[in-house]
Design brief:
Glyas_Bleomycin-R_OHBP_Dase, 123 residues, 2,3-Dihydroxybiphenyl 1,2-Dioxygenase, domain 1, VOC_core, alpha/beta, Glyas_Fos-R_dOase_dom, four-stranded mixed beta sheet
C-alpha cells in the first residue's frame, strides 16, 4: 500500500474549538510544522489542518454544530520534558501532572487550551 507523502498508517484526527490556534500552540510548544490548511468553501472556517512533529502527522479540523469536539490523549517524546512542559503552560495549557521521574523517563501531563492531554516525556 502506498501512503500519501508525509503520512503514516495511523494518525490522530482531532476536532477542536479554535482549530486555527492549534497551529500556533503546537508550533511554539513542540516545534510543529504546518503541512496543510484548507477552509470550508465560502467561509473562514478551518475544514482540515495537518501538522508534523518529528515526522509524525496530526490532522484536525474546526468543531461546528454538526461536528462536536473530539479530543485525544497524546504521548510525546521531547529533548527536555521540563522546558517543554513550561512552554506548554506559558501557551495556556494547564497542569495535569507535574514532570516527575518515572520508570520510563521523566514525564508530566498538560491539558492544552483545546482539551487534549499531552504526556510530555524525555526517555
Amino acid at each position: 500500500m502506498k501512503l500519501p507523502e508525509k503520512h503514516q498508517q495511523v494518525m490522530p484526527y482531532l476536532i477542536l474549538q479554535d482549530a486555527e490556534a492549534f497551529f500556533d500552540f503546537t508550533g511554539k510548544v513542540f516545534g510543529a510544522k504546518e503541512n496543510h490548511r484548507s477552509y470550508r468553501e465560502g467561509t473562514k472556517e478551518l475544514m482540515h489542518g495537518e501538522i508534523s512533529i518529528g515526522g509524525n502527522v496530526i490532522m484536525f479540523g474546526q468543531s461546528n454544530p454538526n461536528w462536536g469536539t473530539d479530543n485525544a490523549g497524546l504521548f510525546i517524546y521531547v529533548e527536555d520534558a521540563d522546558a517543554t512542559f513550561k512552554k506548554a503552560l506559558a501557551e495556556g495549557a494547564t497542569e495535569v501532572m507535574p514532570v516527575t521521574k518515572q520508570s520510563y523517563g521523566k514525564s508530566g501531563g498538560v491539558k492544552d487550551p483545546f482539551g487534549n492531554t499531552w504526556w510530555i516525556t524525555t526517555p
